[in-house]
Amino acid sequence: MFNAIYKKINIKNIKKEKFMVFSELTFLFLFLPFTLLIYYSVPFKFKNFILLLTGIIFYSFGEPVYVLVMLLSTAIDYTAGRIIDRFENNNTIRKLTLIISIIINLSLLGVFKYGTMIIESINQAFDLSLHNPNLPLPIGISFFTFQSMSYTIDLYRKNIPVQKNFISFAAFVTMFPQIVAGPIVKYESIKNELVSRKITSLKISDGIRRFICGLAKKVLIANSLGEVWSVVKVSEYTSLSCATAWFGILCFTFQIYFDFSGYSDMAVGLGKMLGFEFPENFNFPYLSKSVSQFWRRWHITLGDWFKNYLYIPLGGNKKGTLRTIFNLFVVWLLTGLWHGASWNFVIWGGYFGILIILEKFLFKNILLSLPKFFQVMITFSAVIFGWLIFEMTDISLIPDYLGAMINIKNLFDSSSVYYLFHYSIIFITAFLIAFKIPQKLIAYLKSLSCFKKSYPYISSSGEIFTFLICIFYLVNAGYNPFLYFNF
Amino acid sequence: MKFKADIIKIFCFFLIITATPVIIFFSKKQNFSETENRILTSFPHFTAQGYFSREYMNNLSNYLSDHFVMREKIISFKNNIERLALKNEINGVLNVNGNLVEIFRQPNQNIKKNNINTINNFIKRHNNTVFCLAPTAQHYFKDKLPCYSYADSEEEYINSCYKNLDGANFSNISASLQDGEYLYYRSDHHWTSNGAFNAYQSISDKLGITPYSRNNFTVSSKSKDFYGTLYSKTFDNSVKKDEIIKYELKEKNPEINITDEKGNVINQSLYYPSQLLQKDKYSYFLGANKGVININNFKNKDAPNLLIIKDSYANSLIPFLSLHYSKITLIDLRYTTPTQLKKINPNDFSKTLILYNVIGFSKEKTVSKLKFIV
Fold first, then answer.
1. Per-residue pLDDT reduced to its tens digit, A334-383
2. Three-state DSSP class for B33?
3. Are A183 and A268 in contact (CB under 8 A)?
4. N or C: which end of chain A has fewer CB within 10 A?
């Protein structure tokens, strides 16, 4: 079992095809210096073109063929935008163009991301054996389709001006910081910066800080905690001890937060280095006092997108209680589905949908009357159980895992000692950071007069030091002393 | 103040990301990693096919990683940081009182089941077989392992493997490897010559030979500079270096050479002194792992023959066993083909010995190749 995890890390580094992510040596030491050097050197009128070019290079590093899918989506929405703008008085054409653009984008998503799920579900439901071409998933398709759809919809609503310059529009879709893992940047939020942006040393410095924070979250914390869950997840749940089961899912709870928010931090940081202010995607979600609040703090840009482009068009909460419940349920099922092409994700979305509906209509006052601490703990517990559904693609295993979590007969075993000893410090660090404790401490220290002068130097050195440690961890990941048979 | 600090930081950040690739590209490179025992990636050439199959990008990634500035120092430093955070087990290895110990955790019950089946079937075909599982350093240190080690018991594993065998067909040497000085290397997963000597004493009974006692040997140290496989996994510099020890019979100097399956002489003795200058000093004994080799002792022309199916643990046992046989044929199933195996006839030998270390055996799938020896 342990050799499974060692093998996993091993294989991941030798054989598995990697797409370029920020937490990788090729990105840090080849792509980034090369891109920034050129980007900062060229005059402003060429900067968007550089963004487009480097975006394509970045994407094609992981998807040499699928880069065409991304460019196709871009071209279609650019064209749709031009048409909608040209025929500004002809509502039929505008509507038709919008619908076609949305259908094409959703179809791309449907075919490439959900193709296997659709075919296998039909096969199972109707006892057929339709052929499944098993198309590999183009990276970031869930992000860039949503991003470019935001443009056409907002344009249709006449909320934004058209972008006639193809290069500028394409740069918006393909630029490398958010193409792989978000945040979902609405065209509206960067439309001004696309046309004129100032790159100051303050922005670059802030950008570097966010980038390093995100890198550390991913490389130092998420990857380490992930080691625990990746072994516990594939173990035999019926023989799992209670402590190990709990520690496993808790490690995943923090792993996914640090992984996802880490990427978002890196994207925001890189955006700043390029002169863009991307929206925040996470706001200490585990501090939430209700599930509704959780979804305003977790993957904020997705929630925003669904609210603006699905919930409100469906009527939001303006069409009576029953309709509101229906709207909420649809939005949450689709939110779940967006996260993954498997039915457990839909159930996960539905789980939160139900909790939010209950909170909104039944438990709101009860929840608010409880002390803050309990509100946070109840929400956090609900989220943890949510992650269990999220991770179990085979839903039938969920009862077994839950059984292990309440197994008083087998509370603690030698695996629990092992995990707690090796990972407690990292776990506690993750816990404190997620619950904003060191940040509050630093903010307090920063305000003290004795630190005011030296704080910027302390902070800068800390950031560079952290950056080096992250690099060390990345170098170590490529080291493979497991080729045992060679000895 | 903040502005100044910002500028310095920006400068440092850009210096790191621009200077590193330049240094990597222009520095003198190694082609081979002694610690990982593999060839390091060379700078990939761009081809359309390599690009579309993503092979080019992977190789670029591996190139950067393989030739990174001060790679081994970085890994060592990173491991020290992990130990600070109490992540003491590094790549499956724990430091127990200054000794690196690989932790035994059975990966997969099926491998054990299949291996035992294969061996039992072999023994049914050839009853003059002795099966021996050698415990590793974990067994020696079992009372000193920390409470969080989460290790499986090697003794239990060994006993369960012998469960269905006739007493004549297995040799339990575990007791001989529990007490004594320096029986296992501090930085390598093998037993030392001392450990092998103890095993030799214990296994002789089932093999039907009378072992020489310790005072028949001159014991000398051939190298005190050995950092082995477990060092490669951890880069733990706090561990003392290991010694390569040679046991030489005082009288009756044996005349031994190593030949391949065709009879061509590979080496004029059991030892490879040139390996003492390399990193993998354990290869001093019998050289690098090969599929089929013969150990011929010309002083023992009237002695019987021995067939050994083995992993690398047997290499340091051979200096002792070779004193009792005229020919020992060694087979490492990891490096043999079915064709080679079909040519082996255990009936040509007085005994067959199957010798593996516990950890290796629990992971080894090539044991199934034993079925090709009919």
1. 999 999 888 999 999 999 999 999 998 888 888 888 999 999 999 999 99
2. strand
3. yes
4. N
Contact yes or no for B270/B249 (Cβ under 8 A): no
| B71:A479 CB<8 A | yes
* Min Cα–Cα distance to chain B from A290, Å: 34
Could you say which of B10, B61, B89 has the minimum Cβ distance to residue A422? B89
Q: CA-CA distance, B102 to B104, in Å (whole number)? A: 6
> What residues have CB less than 8 Å from B126, skipping those under 6 apart?
B346, B347, B352
- SS3 label, residue B341: helix
Neighbours of B75 (CB within 10 A): 25
pLDDT, residue A20, reads 66
Mind telling me how many Å the CA of A210 is from chain B's nearest CA?
A: 13
Contact state of B10 with A201 under an 8 Å Cβ cutoff = yes
Lookup result for tokens 């099966």 = B131
Across the interface, whether the CB atoms of B35 and A463 are under 8 A apart is answered no
Provide, rounded to the nearest whole percent, the portion of chain A with pLDDT above 70.
94
In terms of Cβ atoms closer than 10 Å to its own Cβ (0-12, 13-18, 19+), residue B347 is exposed
Q: Which amino acid is at A152?
A: T
Instruction: Report which residue type is found at B309.
Output: I
Rg (CA), chain A: 24
Which residue out of A29, A57, A203 would a mutagenesis test of the B interface target, given it has the greatest number of B Cβ atoms within 10 Å?
A29
Q: At what angle do helices A67-86 and A141-156 cross, to 10 degrees?
A: 0
- How far B148 CA sits from the closest chain A CA (Å)? 5
How many beta-carbon pairs under 8 angstroms link A with B?
Answer: 170
β-pairing verdict for B305-310 and B327-331: parallel
CA distances from A75 to A62, A104, A143, A168, B171 (A): 21, 11, 16, 12, 74
Locate B355 and state its tokens. 């010798």
Residues of chain B found within 8 Å of residue A231, distances taken between Cβ atoms: none
Distance CA A91, CA B102 (A): 73
Q: What is the DSSP code (8-state) at residue A325?
A: H
- Residue B348 CA to residue B370 CA, distance in Å, equals 16
pLDDT for position A19: 56
Residue segments in chain B with a per-residue pLDDT below the cut of 70: 1
Q: What are the structure tokens assigned to B327, written together? A: 């020919």
DSSP assignments along A63-108, one per residue: -TTTHHHHHHHHHHHHHHHHHHHHTTT-HHHHHHHHHHHHHHHHHH
pTM, entire model: 0.91
Q: Find, among B129, B57, B142, the residue nearest to B101 by Cα.
A: B142
Query: What letter represents residue A452's amino acid?
Result: K
Inter-chain contact B10–A204, Cβ cutoff 8 Å?
Answer: yes
Q: Give the DSSP letter string of A433-472.
A: HHTTHHHHHHHHHHHSHHHHTTHHHHHHHHHHHHHHHHHH
Chain A residue closest to B19 (CA)? A29
Q: Which residues of A317-349 are buried (b: 16+ CB within 10 A; e: fewer)?
A: eeeeeeebbebbbbbbbebbbbbbbbebbbbbb
Q: Which residue has tokens 């190694």?
A: B30
Are A6 and B92 in contact (CB < 8 Å)?
Answer: yes
Q: Is the ipTM of this complex over 0.95?
A: no
Active-site residue, A339 included: yes
CB B36 to CB A480 under 8 A?
yes
What are the tens digits of pLDDT across the range A206-261?
999 999 999 999 999 999 999 999 999 999 999 999 999 999 999 999 999 999 99
Least Cα separation, residue A384 to chain B (angstroms): 25
CA B268, CA B275: separation in Å to the nearest integer? 15
Contacts of B13 in chain A (CB under 8 A): 208, 464, 467
A7 pLDDT exceeds 50? no
Put simply, the answer to whether B86 touches A483 (Cβ < 8 Å) is: no
